[in-house]
Write a structure and sequence with these properties.
Layout lengths: L4 E6 L5 E9 L4 E5 L6 E7 L6 E5 L2 E5 L3 H11 L1 H6 L3
Antiparallel strand pairs: 1-2, 1-6, 2-3, 3-4, 4-5, 5-6
């Protein structure tokens, strides 16, 4: 099974990079930047407008430009059983 990867943007340089996803929820996305002994974990949380996720790695800000609703749709596609168990 291959790990899920998402593309995040570094705010300082504007460059995009692919990072591995450890856990994905609408409230928080946990990612790992780098590989092996040089990997660094990062928690990305939604912005106030809930239109993107932001996190900080070693003093650098990264942004995942997907809304919370879009992320929840992706999660529901992967495992529809989770949608039924979620309370509203």
């Amino acid at each position: 099974m291959e790990a899920e990867k998402i593309s995040v943007k570094m705010t300082e340089s504007g460059k995009s990079m692919d990072v591995a996803v450890l856990s994905k929820r609408a409230e928080c996305i946990q990612v790992v930047i780098g590989e092996g002994v040089h990997s660094v974990p990062c928690d990305m949380t939604p912005t106030k407008s809930r239109q993107a996720y932001v996190g900080s790695v070693m003093g650098r800000e990264i942004v995942y430009e997907q809304s919370c609703d879009k992320v929840q749709e992706e999660i529901d596609k992967v495992n529809p059983a989770l949608k039924k168990s979620r309370r509203f």
